[in-house]
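Hey L., structure's done. Input below.
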Amino acid sequence: MKHATIAFLGLLLSTSLLLADTPEKENILPEWALGGFVRPQGKNPIIIPDPHSTFYCPMTQQQVDWEESDTFNPAAIMKDGKIYVLYRAEDNSSPKLSERTSRLGLAESKDGIKMKKQKAPVLYPAEDNTRTFEWPGGCEDPRLVVTEDGLYVLTYTSWNHDKAHLSIATSRDLINWEKHGLAFDKAQDGKFRDTWSKSASIVTEVKKREAGRYPY
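Output:
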């Protein structure tokens, strides 16, 4: 996948984002479904790779072009009246998986179309408690929810070029993240600790918003 990009964010409801390619009059959905949606002309892609985005990587101990190749697999959520998108970025277009590292970038938008990206990734392989599971492949496939007290909970894939592990991280501001390790580390006495697992989502409950109660 070379120069993958993130397309238009149509509608954000809680943590779900749905897109459609067909004209509205043809996009007839069942009663239970959200939609229909129309892809705006001339607006895509909204997030693209940037070979000039660099940051000091604690894993390689050098400056890297962290989103040089691909930007894809996003998660989105509302915060302070804006749409925030966590997206996966790859640092090179090598056909070999063993030569790529993924990191998670953050972008914000008022309208879901025009995006302002952070210059550096917000989640990446580092000298921390997840090193065994994230070096050298990195962090992939973000899925994002928020609790009633404003804690953002992220499920993501830790990839060490050997086995994928589902991991958990939390944040209060979407920029500074605390990694909590493997999601299934202690489940059933560690039975699933070394089972291939990735790309999970947390099912949430939609509640009536009360003034001042939720961060979005």
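The first strand starts at residue 11 and ends at 13. Confidence is low (pLDDT under 50) at residues 7-24.

-- N.
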